[in-house]
Amino acid sequence: MKRLYNIILLFCLSGILPAQQESFTIFDTVQLEEIRISASVPLNERTVLDFHQSSNFSSIDRINERLDGIMLIRRGAYAMDPQMHGFSAGQINVTIDGMKMFGACTDRMDPVTSYLEPDNLKTLKINHGTAGNINGNTVGGSFDMLLREPATSQSPSYSISAGTGYETASNGVNANAAFELSREKWAFRSSGTYRNHDSYRAGDGNIVPFSQFSKVNLHSVFKYEPDPNNIIRLDFLLDDAFDVGYSALPMDVAKARARMFSVEYRKPLTGSRLSNLKTRLYYNSVYHLMDDSSRDSTFLLEGNAEQDTVYMRMDMPGWSDTWGFYLETEVELGERSSLFFKLDDYLNFSRANMTMYMNSPSYPGEPPMYAETWPDQYRNVIGLFASYTNQISDDLRMGLDTRIDYSITRVTSETGWRQFAIFGYDINKPYYHLPLSLNINLGFRPDKAIAFEGGLGYSERLPTNSEQFGFFLYNALDGYDYLGNPDIKPEGSVEAWTRIRFTRPDFKVSLQGTLSHVSDYIIGMVDPDIPRMNLYATGLKRYRNIQYANLFSTGLQVHWTPVNQISIYSLSKYTYGVTNNGEALPLIPPLKNFSIMRFQEDRFSIQVEGEFSSAQNRTSESFGETPTPAFAVFHLRATWMINISNHNLELGTGVENVFDKAYSEHLDWGNYLRPGRNIYLNLSILM
Amino acid sequence: MIPDRSEPGSSDHYGIIKMKKNAFLFLAISILFFVSCEKNDDMGDQDPGLYKITSAISEDGIYKVELYSMNDTLFEGYNKLFLSVVEVETKNLISEAELGLRPMMHMVDKIHSAPYENPESTASSDGYFEGAVVFIMPSNPDEGWVLNVDMNISGTETVTELEIPWVKYLEEPRKVKVTSDIDGTIYFVSRVEPSDPVVGINPCEFTIHYKESMMSFPAATDLTMTIEPEMPSMEHGSPNNEDPEHTGKGHYTGKVNFTMTGWWRVHFTLKKGDKIVSDDHYMDITF
Lengths: 687, 287
Known about the structure:
heterodimer; A: mainly beta; Maltoporin, Chain A; 22-stranded antiparallel beta barrel; 5-stranded mixed β-sheet; globular; B: mainly beta; Immunoglobulin-like; 2 domains; 5-stranded antiparallel β-sheet; 9% helix
């Protein structure tokens, strides 16, 4: 048993595993599998192949990048913003074990994914589109990160693992360590990750300024299991990032700090009519402090009397606290059908403000300027989710689900009220929303090797605090200040999706397509009557509901094992987005392909990867987008596992961007170049 | 495996109830929170808190006049003045009186007056006669202001001479002297509001007087005014301002919006009919 854990642990240490396993899973006609789950990526098991493992220390961003339907919006080398089928930010639902958490940055410099490390995660659960509504209303899909849980063990055992790695492009050091203790009735696990990277070197040989970052992440979990039907677990998560550069933004981050606490109680009650009862109570707190003190373009250089064209420094702190709970259970209706219920509620408080210190020599002694960029606001959302699954026949399965939320949003800051009074809004009142969603999914498997799945759905999502009450938030992509629209309506998406899977032991193909018609699509529109506020801004945009936008997304995965030692995996994804005026939606990625060939012989593996992107010439002019050229980059990796006196040692090395190509992707803000040739060396040990 | 169901009353059973209770309690609290947020802010009328500036006995010795202001020192610009009149012998507070203000600047080589607004003949409920003076220059050690109050109380006429201890110069002027581009007339534009600027919508009120002679500064009632606020160092303005319109006695009232705290400059243009009196003046407002 201990050995098994050791192996599992080693694997999780040894990087993050891939998977896509789920998307190739053969239907089990007896066990009711949720059709809704688009992908479940188990992070602590080495599955068939390591196609998503780019190194031992892959961040969540790295894994996401290689998943079907997911792209990353990049503003620097850190904290990339996931995009699913062209949907991002408030359109998608990012949760931690079903717990809501919201970044505290008005400029989305801290998506929730940036506060977690794969080391602490068990599984990534991804539901695309309107069907991602289990943990909250969404139009784009859900991304749930399940936290690791230690296992109890009949005989007392423990394990320790540690690893470290070095990367040349960013002079970067990664290190992680984990400790797990298992007893008959309880178990404890604590793991931590440390990363410290300088600004990296791009393919053109130049350093990309402000691409450095450092972070510490720690997760501790205690589980008490007096009997198999009563499990209590306590989680604590800490994440501190500091000195994080954002090349594409006018500001960096001095500090991004998250703390999370949760208590979970569950009763598996396997085999009974009512099963998998689970409830969780949680609190998390995020503090985010932007910093422009090291930007010479905006202030006096530190310790240097030389002055620049702009003489301003800004403090932009943000806070986001969330309290919540959920309760879920499954009800078996018969041998072939079941119901699932989830009741959840959360209360989020957010606040952000901006103080500008002008130090212009023409106007000395100017007092600081203060405005509330997110006036204090509370949002309480209570939601009920229910799904019904029915295995109609051996080859036909149906799923129905619905969700209803009731949301109250209230701005409590007097300054905030007054700020919005300027624009004719009286926001000293509660705002109510009632987003709904309904989905129907069908799975048909006429043959063991082939499966057709498809669904229709409708879902609405709440506007984000920025979209509703943001006050002159600068967007570096289009160079506009954004003003919230208190009366903005929720977006609603009608979606149709289909997936065809062909599965043979040595050859698997999956092709999916999703079509979304989003009414009241929320987008910023220029308002020439309102002057911009931030110095760098070219004008002001207000969030508006446009009539509609259409998005189409498709993905093709092929996995072929011609001989035992060699496997080939290829993932292609493509998204298309258009507004009702026929204009291209901004930040829509072009065709992207990952092709990977892996050779494995016993304890040694070698992997060649190609990453290809077509050019994106369909750009949104009103967002100041420019076309992005096509590129092809190649990576080479090797791992070697050694067993020395019962200790497992894993050595990993590789060269990323072998040909030192200077390139950037379409979703990279400011077209900053990606890292050039990067050689890494990792070492992990498990005792 | 057969599930080990806990019996009611067992610790497990209570455990689950407790968890549920907590959950619902949490929900209840979070909903209550919103209810409790619906507080009413009682911005009750408070005594503005007046400062005594000076006092004097009337020429006939019957009355004592006390001068109050909302500021501890009077300043160059529009000052609201609060006068209380007491009969010295009986200590009765006078509530009906005709008071005429005659501000006078005693300079080294000449004297001149200033724009003023006489109080109503009935005192306010607090016992003050409320008038105003636009001090068009500050005091200096050699030159100072005197406020003569011509009084007519129940037919008895007298005068009180109030020596103004100091009229201070403001770093951020609240009064701007404008020379008309049309005919060279000198106007004095003074800020009444915002007196306490905040982020958001502020009342915007100016008085405009013109110089008829050294002793006469009548209200200018036939001008049109437009304003344009700006943050000079940030090079931006604010939207949805309301240009001040004449509302009587040379007062021009509108609205000015500030999107953040800091240094604002309110540019204004004055017009007489279609002709521009001035379009290159401003008033700074920093908070």
